[in-house]
Amino acid sequence: MGSAVPDDVTNITVADGHPYVRAGTVITTRACREDRYSIHIVPDDATVLDALAREIGDRVAAIITDENVEALHARRLASGLTECGIDVRMTAIAPGEQSKNVRTACQLLEWLAGADFGRLDVLLAVGGGVVIDTAGWVASAYMRGIPYVNVPTTLLAQVDAAIGGKVAVNHPRAKNLIGAFYQPRAVVSGIHYLGTLSERQIRAGLAEVIKKAVIASPEVFTFLEQELDSILAAEPAVTLPLVHAASSIKTRLVERDPYEADLHRTLNFGHTVGHALETATGYGRLLHGEAVAFGMAVAVRIAAHRGLIDADSRARILGLIAAADLPLTYEDLGIPVLADDVLAAIDAIRQVRAGHLRFVLPTGIGSTLITDDVTNGEIRAALFAPTRVASAV
Ligand SMILES: NC(=O)c1ccc[n+]([C@@H]2O[C@H](COP(=O)([O-])OP(=O)(O)OC[C@H]3O[C@@H](n4cnc5c(N)ncnc54)[C@H](O)[C@@H]3O)[C@@H](O)[C@H]2O)c1
Ligand SMILES: [Zn+2]
């Protein structure tokens, strides 16, 4: 039998003068990998089970969910998988943004270790963005990375959090401060799960769709304007194409720069102020999508103040945010927030990004501009601008 070690390795010597042993020689190495995964957007339990059974094969499945989703969907999912002959374990975290932290992640790692979960077994993240972000980070850390499949159950998670492999937990200093890029093995979005969401949760998910429509698709934007009522009623005839379109936009945009090498991410539209607002309010009082909606309105106001966006686009974007009953103004937030706290959180983001605060400003519907010269003064003015839609038009 020949050696599996290639010649360029067996040839390495310690001989004097050999390039490898000469003082000051730099050794360069590289590690490449390509991740490819499918996003299944399916209508019911049977099609979810079918897609999952194929991904799990003969491995053990460990479901991480939250207590709400456990009762509503995950127990039924676990039974279905068991009936398919799959060995299933399940644990549930407390629902909500406050669970998205290192402590919960450590408890989940302990659970996996205690359940004797192996390197090739499959973790299923069944829930909203909180479960998906936390479980994904746990999957990236356990045994240096185990396969995980996202089964998003909120609109927000189906159109955004489940796709792209950005996994993280929050820290009091900044949102998503501790995390990784770690791609799922698959995403299985069951549209029927959206039927049990509260309207507030649907609105919050819609914010992330509005974001994508503004940065990339006038056609999707018009669809949102026309179908708003049916979307809020979670009618599958509209949510299915909507999740499809939004998932396609997200995958296409993320593929160009999956590890955020250049940080020119149009997908961050609304998120600079949105994340700062979530940090300033202690995570959980505002839904992520609500904070993002307000962040988008702030960005529109900054763009308008700079003369970058035409009046019609500005009115349509602010009008859609308002029609979706998402927060447009400071008063709409409905909770006391100190501007100084929001600006301090923005400064923390600036620090995390080595002094550059990349701000996505819309220049129309379907077009944006990214700049890093937005000042705290401009942000402060836009935070407080009393723009009601009537005055925006
Ligand atoms: N990784 C990413 O790229 C990315 C992108 C966008 C957002 N996020 C993150 O996602 C998180 C927000 O996600 P979210 O809005 O889904 O919040 P969430 O996970 O807290 O879910 C919202 C609420 O809905 C409940 N719920 C979930 N599915 C349900 C269903 N089918 N029926 C009834 N109730 C259900 C949950 O128990 C929870 O109480 C934030 O932490 C945000 O940072 C991540
Ligand atoms: Zn988001």
Summarize the structure.
With 393 residues, the protein is an alpha/beta fold. 48% of the residues lie in helices and 15% in strands.
Molecular structure report:
48% of the residues lie in helices and 15% in strands. The protein is α/β, with parallel strands linked by helices and 393 residues long. A 6-stranded parallel beta sheet has the order 1-8-5-4-2-3, sandwiched between helices. It is globular. The structure holds nicotinamide-adenine-dinucleotide (NAD) and zinc ion. Residues 160, 208, 271, 288, 292 line the site of zinc ion (ZN).
Number of strands: 10
What's the average pLDDT?
A: 92
Weakly predicted, low-confidence segments: 389-393
**Main sheet: strands, sense, barrel:** 6 strands, parallel
**Which of globular, elongated, flat, extended, rod-shaped describes the shape?**
globular
Small molecules bound: nicotinamide-adenine-dinucleotide, zinc ion
Structural class: alpha/beta
Number of helices: 15
Q: Fraction of residues in helices?
A: 40-55%
In order across it, which strands form the biggest sheet?
1-8-5-4-2-3
Order of H and E elements: HEHEHEHEHEHEEEHHHHHHHEEHH
What gap, in angstroms, lies between the N and C termini?
78 Å
Radius of gyration from CA coordinates: 23 Å
Strand content: 5-15%
